[in-house]
Amino acid sequence: MMTTTSTMPTLERPTGTAHRRPAGPAGQQDSPSSRAPGPVERGISVCRGRDTEIPASRAVRMCQLETRKSHTWLRKLALVLGGMILSAASLRADIVVSLYTTGDLASATVSAGSTLALYTALSTTPAQGVGGLFYTIECPNTNWSIFTRDYASYGWYHNDGLFDQSTPVPATSSFPVAIADGLFASTPGTADFTLNTSLDPAGTTMTSGTIETFSLVVPSTPGVYTLNFGTLDALAGNGDALTGEVAHGFTVTVEGVVPEPGALALLGLAGAALAGRRRRRQRL
């Protein structure tokens, strides 16, 4: 009796074909660039293009660490830049020009139509040399006059035909000089009251002190007025423009003229004398 033994064929898995997707219509495999990214590939692409295949969870953790490092670096950069900005701001000099009256006061109360003595002062913080100044002083209405002015005594060029372009110039002006209006004279663009000069000799600088003195005839109308600097520019000794100019104005309270007690007594006596004369005439 013949015994027949059947042997089942052994199926072997072709090497290099694991996890391959079915062939396309043309019978070819999809290229890696056309495949949808898997979790490992997504993790790799997010994490700075790493070419080492790592699990997605580990890739996420690595990316989180790198993100924290990046944020830490950005915070440090922000702190450095902030410190540089603060340092630059602290190095900038404030160049302050102020209006004062006697006793370094920034306000005054005067009678209508009287004369007010003022001066402008310079201060710099930290100390910085100023060699030239240009500013305008603006009066709030047309009822002001410049009665006196002196800046030559404080070391500035005065009526030299070159450096001094101030208005009015004491040497060539007949005081008092009426200020045409609040900001500008009748000629548009020409300021009424300006200082535009340099320290004598050229190249000299100052860090603080009196700039000039002058006196103004105040309005005859009572009220509260403010004198302001319209323009303020400062130059270094070599002519370079400086920054950080600050100007402080001045408040003037003009009061109505009140008769003195002696004057009131004289007026009372005069009135009594007139009344007595009328009575004598009526009796006659």
Name some characteristics of this structure:
284 residues; alpha+beta; Immunoglobulin-like; 2 domains; 6-stranded mixed β-sheet; 5-stranded mixed β-sheet; 3 helices; 11 strands; 24% helix; elongated
Structure description:
The chain has 284 residues and is α+β, with helices and mostly antiparallel strands. The chain has two domains: 49 residues; 162 residues, Immunoglobulin-like (Sandwich), CATH 2.60.40.680. It contains three helices and eleven strands. A six-stranded mixed beta sheet has the order 6-5-8-3-1-10, with no helix packed on it. Strands 2-11-9-4-7 form a five-stranded mixed beta sheet, with no helix packed on it. Helix 1 runs parallel beside helix 2. The radius of gyration is 44 Å and the shape is elongated. The N terminus is likely disordered.
List the SSEs and their pairings.
Blueprint: H1 39-46, H2 56-91, E1 94-100, E2 107-111, E3 115-125, E4 132-138, E5 145-150, E6 177-178, E7 194-198, E8 208-217, E9 223-235, E10 245-248, E11 250-255, H3 261-283
Parallel strand pairs: 1-10, 2-11
Antiparallel strand pairs: 1-3, 3-8, 4-7, 4-9, 5-6, 5-8, 9-11
